[in-house]
Design a protein that fits this description.
single chain, five-stranded antiparallel β-sheet, LVIVD, LVIVD repeat-containing protein
């Protein structure tokens, strides 16, 4: 967002700057990237397929359902792992689903996002998944949702979308043209002063941006999830709103009215009829006693950072990661008192290296501290949380504490741990590459 504000500021400043001398100034050569496009409907149809297993390219989120683990391959699709024997998991299929980040499952219906659409798969026969159903623009409709994620971004000074129809076209490549322009010509054509160019690109990228244990009919995701099924409703959070679907008829979800949130949102977690939404500036609490219309209760504000949250009773555990992308807040674990939902307050802060997802099983708290590995804490005394185990030399992303074991996704590796006398022990390590 900082880049957006800078670009807008400089653009408006340019309107009040005399350019009488610019016409005579020396021209510069600019690299202008123009999108190569395809019909969006055809593009989306070709972006879905059920295939044989293939290596993962970039680990995303994980989701557990019955004897299966689903691993998101960032923006590419979903790897299906047969986990009936956690000691020897088997990669059995890959669902090609471009533009995908999240899934949620109920009664053999897999709901997933794809370029802002909601896609529904029937996985009752995991070896014979039929064609998917797609509800267009059901979740969000951001510009970047129509860019193929296997398309490389070229080096350019400006990306010219003036002829691009986001509603009907998809970007499948780029043509980079070199043009000589004066400062005045550049500002007149593109609306930017070239001082606004950062890293050689004169546009601001949009932010790209489960939870409590569930019964056997509904799966379970990690703390970084943006999808959450509660009862007969699917909630999907995006940057500034909650998309709500009535899934009473599993094959025909009803899209309900979006609820706009009181801040930017990245993750969703529920405890009963209360949603806890994690965002880069705070945690937001919503009441879903009327499941079709979440109502804002309160928020807990913190410095700018990436922010997943899990909740156990009166305590919310929030990891904050402050880095060049997420913000400048000190990385660590925030313990927030939510006994009074209308007035959550910080109880204790514990520093960490660069945490991502987290989860808990009874008194054990599991934190994925990025490149600093998996950390296991005893949280029985929230005022004095103690580190009891540290699995080093692994990259960690998110965890799902199941009833019998812990799932964790790292850099192309699925780890599983067995609970053992108040601690955990490595059960298996399965490479998806």
């Amino acid at each position: 967002m900082k880049k957006t504000f800078l670009v807008l500021f400089l653009a408006f400043t340019a309107l009040f700057t005399s350019c009488s001398d610019d016409d005579n100034s020396e021209k510069k050569e600019y690299r202008v990237a123009v999108p190569l496009t395809s019909d969006l409907r055809v593009f989306k149809e070709e972006a879905v397929d059920v295939m044989e297993p293939e290596p993962i390219q970039q680990s995303g989120k994980i989701y557990a359902y019955q004897d299966f683990v689903f691993v998101n391959d960032l923006y590419r699709g979903i790897h299906i792992i047969d986990n009936s024997n956690p000691s020897t998991p088997q990669n059995i299929a890959f669902i090609k689903l471009e533009g995908n980040n999240d899934i949620s499952i109920k009664n053999d219906r897999l709901y997933a996002d794809s370029y802002g659409d909601l896609v529904i798969f029937d996985i009752s026969d995991i070896d014979n998944i039929p064609a998917a159903k797609r509800i267009e623009n059901a979740i969000y409709q951001e510009f970047w949702c129509t860019v193929g994620f296997d398309v490389d971004w070229p080096e350019a000074d400006y990306f010219d979308y003036s002829e691009f129809d986001a509603g009907n076209e998809a970007i499948v490549g780029w043509e980079v043209k070199r043009e000589r322009l004066s400062q005045a010509e550049f500002e007149s054509r593109f609306g930017y002063n070239d001082l606004a160019l950062q890293d050689g690109i004169a546009f601001s990228e949009p932010a790209r941006a489960e939870s409590a244990a569930s019964d056997n009919s509904t799966g379970q995701g990690g703390s970084l999830a943006r999808f959450k099924i509660v009862g007969n409703y699917l909630y999907a959070v995006e940057w500034s709103s909650i998309s709500i679907f009535d899934i009473s008829d599993l094959d025909n979800p009803v899209t309900l009215e979006d609820v706009y949130t009181n801040g930017a949102i990245e993750t969703i977690y529920n405890q009963g009829e209360i949603l806890f939404l994690g965002g880069p500036q705070g945690m937001y609490i919503y009441d879903i006693s009327n499941p079709e219309k979440p109502v804002f209760v309160s928020d807990f504000q913190h410095g700018t950072a990436c922010d997943p949250v899990v909740v156990d009773g009166d305590w919310a555990f929030v990891t904050l990661r402050g880095d060049t992308f997420c913000g400048n807040t000190e990385s660590g674990l925030y313990v927030v008192d939510v006994s009074n939902l209308t007035n959550p307050s910080l109880f204790k802060f514990y520093p960490l290296a660069g945490p991502y997802g987290l989860g808990f099983k009874e008194e054990l708290l599991f934190v994925c501290d990025g490149a600093d590995g998996l950390k296991v804490f005893d949280k029985s005394d929230v005022g004095n949380i103690k580190l009891i185990n540290h699995f080093k030399d692994i990259v960690t992303y998110d965890v799902i504490p199941l009833s019998q074991s812990l799932l964790m996704i790292g850099d192309g590796v699925l780890y599983q741990y067995a609970y053992s006398e108040g601690n955990i022990e490595l059960l298996s390590e399965f490479s998806l590459n």
